[in-house]
Prior knowledge:
- The protein is of the alpha/beta class.
- The protein folds into 2 domains: 2-209 and 380-395, 3-Layer(aba) Sandwich (Rossmann fold), CATH 3.40.50.2000; 225-378, Rossmann fold, CATH 3.40.50.2000.
- It has 15 helices and 13 strands.
- It has helices at residues 17-31, 55-61, 74-83, 87-90, 95-107, 124-130, 143-152, 157-177, 189-196, 235-255, 289-294, 311-318, 347-359, 361-378, 381-395; strands at 2-7, 35-42, 64-67, 112-116, 134-139, 183-186, 203-205, 225-229, 260-264, 280-284, 298-301, 322-325, 342-343.
- The strands form 2 sheets. Strands 3-2-1-4-5-6-7 form a 7-stranded parallel beta sheet, with helices on both faces. A 6-stranded parallel beta sheet has the order 10-9-8-11-12-13, with helices on both faces.
- Helix 12 crosses helix 14.
- The protein is globular and about 65 Å long.
Amino acid sequence: MRILQICNKSPYPAKEGGPIAMNAVAESLLQSGHEIKILALNTPKYHVDENAADASYKERTHIEWCAVDTSFSAKQAFMCLLKNKSYHVARFYHPEVEKKLQAILCACRYDVVILETIYMSDYIPVIRQYSQAKIVLRAHNVENRVWHRVARRTANIVKRAYLSVLARQLKQYEKKMLPAFDAVWAISDKDARILQSYGNNHVYTLPFALPIEHCGRLEPMKSDSLFSIGSMDWEPNREGLNWFLHKVWPLIHAAYPQLVFRMAGRNMPPEFYQYQSSGLQVVGEVPDALEFMKQNDVLIVPLMSGSGIRIKIIEAMSIAKLVITTSIGAEGLDVEHQKQVLVADTPQQFLQAVRYVMQHTDDCEQIRRQAQQYVCDNHDYKVVNGVLSQLLARLA
């Protein structure tokens, strides 16, 4: 098949959750023998130097970028509020993108067009006008759930009210647009059930895929370093880590002063650097996220908002890293407490989880082994490519 993939940010370089997930779909399509082309927005928040991009990647994916300023605009936000339109979606629509998309569709016939995230849905009319392709939504999250959860946890009353309005508008938009797709590929079974309730009967689960190179190999765990990694310009990541630093780390440090907690990620908030003492190390952006994970022991994912799945958790499990996360962090994964991960939702539960790691070495080895096997069974490219072939056959 000839497939066009339209992305709200560049899948190259794949350095954070969204681009990693989009790149995984592209890689699955290529491994399955399909011809693909990528049209990606090039935004200030995730800017790509097109000239410096890897030549082989450009050749394999025929990627084109379109520069779009998605930065916050008070004027645009206010106009969307007045018109009861989703500002989250409006930020990603631009006439230049539509113009480039029209040219791409007129130059070549595509069998399938994949829109990465609901935010790209405003381009459906131009796709329908210039192509007979089936249109698929690749849903990374149930987006409105992310923002409803963020709003509930926002202390500032005015900001909470505004975020609640944005979440409501986004939910209205998702419910309105979902029936316009020929199929929806959710990233987890839980998201698939929710999205199906929005009025589309062609909702299926396409798991996130990654290469599993060493399933069954466990390196010794020293249990002397906790770490976190994630893009800090995503509100749920920043919110969760801020909560952990204020509420949880003081308890852990008091109980285990020898432990080190290393924080890595793009766009680390400046205020986080004030914590760089008492066992805390602010690493910031790292050149190789997987290598950073290999160098540390226990991944902490203190997520209080969000939807979909946490790709960094799957990556960590794939290399047999022990993961301590919240119930929301574990959402979308068929994992259980003390089987594949450790689940903690309160400061005391996080402390108990760390104590479990320190005192139950053999049990933790078994958890790591089961976590890695779970990823091998459910997220290896060989497994996901088979699911993808079935989904494309349904469209055909």
